Amino acid sequence: MARRTSLVIATTNEGKLSELRALLGDLPLELVSVRDVLGENLVVSEDGATFEENAVIKARAVCQATSLCALADDSGLEVAALGGRPGVRSARFAHERATDAENNAALLRELEDVADSSRAAKFRCVLALASPWASAVETVVGSCDGFIARAPRGSGGFGYDPLFIVPELGERAMAELSEAEKNGVSHRARAVRALRSVLVRLLEAELRDVERVLGSP
Q1: What is the pLDDT of residues 82-111, one digit of tens each?
Q2: What is the pTM of this model?
Q3: CATH number for region 5-214
Q4: Which DSSP symbol is given to 205?
C-alpha cells in the first residue's frame, strides 16, 4: 500500500473542511482535522490585518501543535461599494458570534441603497501550507468575481453563497450551483489549483526521504 502523507486542515468551519477534502481528494494525502489529531479544536487568535497574515498564523500554529504539515484557509468577501468590507471580518460582519444568515442580512442592509451597477464583489481565498521541516510558509491566492444580489437565492453552500452572483455561470448565486460547478469556479478551488504544485513537491520530498531511509545500511 502506498504511504499517505497526513495533512491537517486548519479550520473548524465544516463547509471549508468539506470543500477542501473534495478538492484535494484525488491526491495521496490523508486529510485530517485538528480535532482528529489533538482530540479537540485549537484556539488560534486570528489578529492579522489581511487574509494572508491570518492564514499563515493558523498554519504555523496548527503545524507546531500537531508536528504535521498544516493547510490553513483564510477567505472572505470583498465588496467594492463598502471599500473592501467585510474582508477579514467576513465571518463576524454582523457581530462576533454571527450566523451566516445574520451576516447576509447585515450585508443587504448596508447595500440597500446601492444601485445594481455598483454591487460588484469578489470572493478571495488565501491558502497557507506550513511544514515541520521548513521555516517558510508557502501561500497561494484564488479569487472569484461577481456581484451581490438583492435577496438570498439557492440552498447550497455556506457563508455569503446565497448572495454572491457568478456571472460566468448564467448569473446564478453560488448557493444555486452544484458542488461540481462551484468547485470549478470558486475562489477556494482556484487557490487549491495553484497549491497543487506545492503539494506535489511535498509528496516527492517525502518519497525521497523514505527511499533514503530504506536504502540506509
Answers
A1: 999 999 999 999 999 999 999 999 999 999
A2: 0.86
A3: 3.90.950.10
A4: H
